[in-house]
Design brief:
With 507 residues, this protein is of the alpha+beta class. It folds into three domains: 179 residues, no CATH class; 81 residues, Helix Hairpins (Orthogonal Bundle), CATH 1.10.287.130; 137 residues, Histidine kinase-like ATPase, C-terminal domain (Heat Shock Protein 90, 2-Layer Sandwich). It has nine helices and 13 strands. The radius of gyration is 54 Å and the shape is rod-shaped.
């Protein structure tokens, strides 16, 4: 299991599925809430319509027993200003949500003396004044402090009642959710409360309900569809993501398998396949091939280096061994001077090889700050026939390595010069510039880069003793690069070779 979810395909599929699931749940919740709100509003509109129809009958002077309370088979209550039920649907058996739990109108009762006299209502009770008062004067509502949620009216709404003229229906409507048992069936309803002022009856509140069964059924249906479709949709998303990811990662698998084959065969000439796309995978394949090409070049260069080094070491070692064997057999024939020269040549070659190995290993030069002109004058003083024109130019790096670089350039120039070698040190903007020129035959333009390769000698016909192993210029360029500079070959004014070293001056 851990291996499965450790793959990119599995993680991408899981992530896509989780994201889609979260989005679908959020969207489904929003849809259900919107659907429920819309259906609740629709039920409220129907309840308000029923309540206003009853209020219209009351404002028109209809008596309680002539009200159309059972036409729509919906629960209806009519409550007076004192909170007493005065009319209700005939089949109503239980109700909640209106604040009036009574389902049958009570017996007539006389109104408060503050009402201004007794008036007989349609049930024969004394309900108000005969002079057309609104029926809720004085203290009729003093203890009734119910809110505007359909469960009663607060003191603030007494002013609304007082502002209604006889026969006028209130513009405001309040809603509440509840339940009722009508004709033996219990259901949930949305109740609307509408106020009306009636001549000889005073202020009344009409409660009418609209069933919420359609809203509940629609929400249940939508929820069932979502719960059924969500797993199927997530399965489709997971399957599609799995297949798409597989196709997208197929080139990566090709790169991986080819790299594994290259590692097993150690054949750096092979290359990974590059897909015919312009995406990141194609860029990865191209970069991998560039890395393999650079690695192949490096390994090939290392092989040539080892082969050339072995070849260069073989000659002085064989010569030294021959001289020693002859000396052992015939001491009078021992060429001590030749043996010393071969030993010195071996020592120099070993030192060159060691320095190249350190440079190839990435050895960083030290951060010593010194005057390049002083170093040039010091090296020139050890070699007769070399002239120097040096201006102060500070550089930062390894003084020993730069001395080795300058010494190699001077030794190379002296081997090829006819009579003159000149060294110049100057500054050129942010660069310290050192030039070594001779009046020899020069370097052909086509060979000016090749001479910096290891074990390369353009004068192959001359003896190895005079020409060296062909490592001096290669070491010089590597040292220049390690110091952030450049070393190039050109043509001197006298027609000979001109080697130019550029090093960054310290800030």
């Amino acid at each position: 299991m851990s291996r499965l979810f450790g793959s990119v395909r599995a993680r991408a599929t899981l992530a896509a599925t989780v994201v889609v699931a979260i989005a679908l749940v959020a969207a489904g919740t929003a849809v259900l809430l919107s659907l429920r709100s819309n259906l609740n509003d629709q039920a409220g509109t129907e309840a308000e319509r029923s309540a206003r129809e009853v209020a219209a009958d009351l404002s028109g002077g209809a008596s309680y027993d002539r009200l159309r309370l059972d036409d729509d088979q919906r629960p209806v209550q009519v409550v007076d200003a004192a909170g007493v039920l005065v009319a209700a649907s005939e089949d109503l058996r239980r109700i909640s949500g209106t604040g009036i739990d009574v389902v049958k109108p009570g017996p007539p009762r006389p109104t408060d003396a503050a009402g201004g006299g007794a008036t007989t209502d349609d049930h024969g009770g004394d309900r108000g004044d005969d002079d057309g008062g609104d029926g809720h004067g004085g203290d009729d509502k003093g203890g009734d402090d119910r809110g505007k949620d359909g469960r009663g009216r607060g003191g603030g709404e007494d002013d609304d009642y007082a502002s209604l003229r006889p026969g006028q229906i209130g513009a405001e409507v309040s809603f509440a959710d509840g339940s009722a048992t009508l004709d033996g069936d219990t259901a949930d309803y949305r109740f609307a409360a509408v106020e009306v002022s009636v001549q000889s009856k005073g202020a009344l509140t009409v409660y009418a309900g609209a069933p919420l069964a359609a809203e509940q059924a629609a929400v249940r249906t939508a929820l069932t569809v979502m719960l059924t479709g969500l797993p199927l949709l997530l399965a489709v998303v997971a399957a599609v993501t799995w297949r798409v990811t597989r196709r997208a990662l197929r080139p990566v698998e090709g790169i991986r398998s080819e790299m594994a084959a290259i590692t097993a065969s150690e054949d750096l000439a092979r290359r990974v396949p590059v897909p015919d796309t312009q995406d990141e995978v194609a860029g990865l394949a191209r970069t991998t091939n560039e890395t393999l090409a650079a690695l192949e070049t490096s390994v090939e260069r290392q092989r040539r280096f080892v082969a050339d080094a072995s070849h260069e070491l073989r000659s002085p070692i064989a010569s030294l061994r021959t001289q020693l064997e002859v000396g052992a057999a015939h001491p009078e024939l021992l060429d001590v001077t030749g043996a010393v020269e071969d030993t010195v040549r071996l020592q120099r070659l070993a030192a060159d090889l060691l320095l190249l190995a350190r440079l190839d290993a990435g050895e960083r030069p030290s951060g010593t700050r010194f005057d390049l002109a002083a170093l040039a004058r010091e090296e020139v003083s050890r070699r007769p026939g070399v002239t120097a024109h040096c201006a102060s130019a500070e550089v930062v790096g390894s003084r020993g390595q730069l001395a080795r670089l300058l010494g190699n350039l001077l030794d190379n120039a002296r081997r090829h010069a006819r009579s003159r070698v000149a060294v110049t040190v100057r500054t050129d903007g942010p660069w310290a510039v050192l030039e070594v020129a001779d009046d020899g035959a020069g370097v052909p333009a086509a060979e000016r880069e090749r001479i910096f390769e290891r074990f390369v000698r353009l004068d192959e016909a001359r003896s190895r003793d005079d020409g060296g192993a062909g490592l001096g210029l290669a070491i010089a360029r590597d040292v220049a690069r390690r110091h952030g500079g450049t070393l190039t070959a050109g043509e001197a004014a006298e027609g000979g070779a001109l080697f130019t070293l550029r090093l960054p001056a310290p800030a």
